[in-house]
Amino acid sequence: MSKKLKSVLILAVGVGLVYWFARRLDWQQVGAHLREARVWPLLLGACLINLTLLARALRWQAFLAPITHVSLRNAFAATSVGFGSVFVIGRAGEVVRPMILTLRERLRLSATIATVMIERIYDMSMVIGLFAINLLFFQMPSDKADDLKMLNSIRSLGLILSLAIIGGIIVLVFLRLRAEFVINLLERKSGWLPRSVARPLLNLVRHLAEGLSVLLNVRELLMTSFYTLVVWALVTCATWLVLMAFGVDFPLSYVIFVLGFGLVGSVVPTPGGAAGAFHLAAAKALTFLGLPDDLAASIAIVYHFISFGPPFLLGLFYLMRDGISIHQLREMIAHEGAEGVTAQDRARPAVHR
Questions:
Q1: How many H helices and E strands in the chain?
Q2: Which of 136, 186, 250, 291 would be 286's cystine partner, CB 3.0–4.6 Å?
Q3: Would 32 be classed as within a structural domain?
Q4: pLDDT tens by residue, 19-48
């Protein structure tokens, strides 16, 4: 499939989801709910979302420590640009973050991408873990309290997710302990791939195994787990503040339930930070918890902008300040695929530090 056709299909999916979300709403009621929302909880929620970027940058430093030391300033700038890019072009924008850091530090692109993959593993484990534990003890809304079948289904899902996390951690530990075996196996089996593809792939797996050393180092494991906990505690607080702005007083278990659904929607690779998919998922969770459709839609719209808007503004600032071009990013990818090219061989573009 050509890149243009793929982009058109992704855009079409995004437009379709937005239409599906919007078509049954009473927009006068939605507008009334938006006007009645309190501003200060939303501003505080936006500040907390930007604080998550600092926590992510500190965690990224820890993940990169086995490979090299990077400055917090550069890690924070790259994190801001990367998450800002997600708001514009969807999840494909996540690759921008390791590219920006590679431009600012003497690193192989495969090394930074590998650590971002480890971050995703941590984040997925934390979110699925919170969501799974929450589901195991979830209490149905009062109007659905007698639906034992649905309650049992929810708790079964929580158990399945918990087991999936345990299995995933076992696989990662195996990769770290048997890294050479896995890499040698890939080298033998990747002969049919073009060298421009096989070499970056092997570099990626090698750096991924190096980064996973945090799983076997108690201090690094505790540090990175702590930063991950801080990230999602801040996101949970921001979610709670958005609900508070609309006068919704949910218990913590309901807040996590909404957060989990919103994150499921956010992984859909549509432009605008999973526009449409995010709104549908968050609104569905809110209506399940008893909110009217129009109020749920109003909260979902604001929740989307609070989740993705602040990082976009911060990332835009760094992009404009550093003058980084698309040409530089494309050139970096081309160099990464070339045999024998190292980060030190590349000319470093002039960026502010």
A1: 15, 0
A2: 291
A3: no
A4: 666 667 677 888 888 889 999 999 999 999
